[in-house]
Amino acid sequence: MRILSGVQSSGRLHIGNYYGAIREFVRLQEEGEALYFIANLHALNSVRDGARARELTLETAAAFIALGVDPARATLFRQSDIPEVAELYWILGTVIPMADLQNAHSYKDKLAHGAAPDFGLFGYPVLMAADILLYDSDVVPVGRDQRQHLELTIDWAGKFNRQYVPGYDSQKRTGGLLKVPAARTRDETASVPGRDGQKMSKTYNNTIDLFGTDKEIEKQIKSVKTDSTTPDAPKPTADQPLYELLKVVFSPEEFAAIDAKWREGGGDPKTHGYGAFKQTLLDGYHATFDPARKRYAELMNDRAELERLLQQGAQKARAYAAPVISRVRGAVGL
Ligand code: AMP
Ligand code: TRP
Fold first, then answer.
1. Does one domain contain both 13 and 57?
2. 93 and 48: one domain?
3. Alpha carbon nearest to ligand 1 atom 11, residue
4. Distance CA 270, CA 232 (A)
5. Cα separations (Å) of 309 from 50, 82, 305, 324?
6. Is 197 within a domain?
7. Is residue 36 within 8 Å of residue 69, measured between CB atoms?
8. Per-residue pLDDT of the chain (334 residues; tens, 9 = 90+)
9. Rounded to an integer, what distance in angstroms lies between the CA atom of residue 257 and that of residue 220?
10. Nearest CA to ligand 1 atom 16
11. Ligand 2: which of 2, 3, 4, 7 to mutate, judged by most atoms within 8 Å of the beta carbon?
């Protein structure tokens, strides 16, 4: 089984990225041949400063490794190190209906927010499809927000195969030039709420970062939104980002004790006030992420080693891509 996924290097990573994506990547690397990449070409849609783009690419690579992606086990690479992906992007684009892209939510959302979209954003799902199809991926673990892109990829792979493979069986999906991946979305990983209760996202400025300074993290956690329930009263559990975050960060057993305290009320304000629960979250954050944060700092201090690991990953990724791009070139007549 070949597993592939990527994360854009478009900003600081937050705990939503970990619980919603990277944790699953680490688990899956035990189950098959995993390929994980830093989507630095996609990131160009939002990062328009070369030095910053380069830095964010390395930061994202260091984050993957620090959080447990093992470059000896999984193939970890930079999207831009495999230029064949841009070639497949173009070739796929020649069989993709405009309407599919006009209906893609990444594009429609941007329009709805009144922004003038660029061609890069319009073509974003095509580049993502090229990412997936270039490596003959079987399984693509993505969050719910990316499911539509995966469905489009499946459609387009079928379309390309029907166009270029005489007698291609669309039902069985075998014998194609491009392998049709299985959609595996992670519905079980609930979306992690941000400090304000919306989905945690760098665009909403409501994150708890993975690799901020201790001070920054403390400030972020202290600013999680709470209501005006008094310390001695039982706390409501609905629409409470603090409650949800505690549930995400702690194990079910640890959370059970916190939950009991949350609901009981009537205790000492020092232990039953929202401030105390924020302190608990901060302690849980440090217990969970401090080893990774230490490793991250070490990696960011050894750029040469990071670069070496990425080059090594690129070599492996290229070997996966070579037969696919060669089949495609042959079929389309290049
Ligand atoms: P993004 O940086 O938004 O492109 O997200 C990178 C990965 O992290 C994707 O697989 C997302 O599904 C996941 N992710 C981002 N934000 C959250 C969140 N608040 N909760 C769960 N998963 C998230
Ligand atoms: N679009 C994805 C995101 O924003 C990142 C991504 C790019 C990706 N190419 C991919 C994910 C291919 C899975 C497979 O999260």
1. yes
2. yes
3. 143
4. 10
5. 21, 15, 6, 24
6. no
7. yes
8. 999 999 999 999 999 999 989 999 999 999 999 999 999 999 999 999 999 999 999 999 999 999 999 999 999 999 999 999 999 999 999 999 999 999 999 899 888 888 888 999 999 999 999 999 999 999 999 887 888 999 999 999 999 999 999 989 888 888 899 999 987 766 656 689 999 999 999 889 999 999 999 999 999 999 999 999 888 889 999 999 999 999 999 999 999 999 999 998 777 778 889 999 999 999 999 999 999 999 999 999 999 999 999 999 999 999 999 999 999 999 999 9
9. 24
10. 16
11. 7
Q: What is the pTM of this model?
A: 0.94
Tell me if residue 174 falls in helix, strand or coil. Answer: strand
Q: Do 133 and 253 share a domain, yes or no?
A: no
Encoding tokens for residue 248?
Answer: 């995400």
User: Nearest Cα to 282, choosing from 331, 327, 217?
Assistant: 217
Same-domain check for residues 46 and 134 = yes
Cβ atoms of 195 and 223 closer than 8 Å? yes
Sign of CA dihedral 207, 208, 210, 214: positive
Is 142 in the same domain as 264? no
Task: Give distance in angstroms: CA of 4 to centre of ligand 1.
Answer: 16
Hey, what are 153's tokens? 């990829």
User: How distant, in Å, are the alpha carbons of 40, 97, 123, 136 from that of 94?
Assistant: 23, 8, 12, 20
Sheet containing 2-8, strands listed edge to edge, beginning at the edge strand earlier in sequence: 75-78, 33-39, 2-8, 139-142, 182-185
- Cβ of 42 less than 6 Å from ligand 2: yes
Q: Which residues are catalytic?
A: 110, 199, 202
- Domain of residue 252, residue span: 214-297
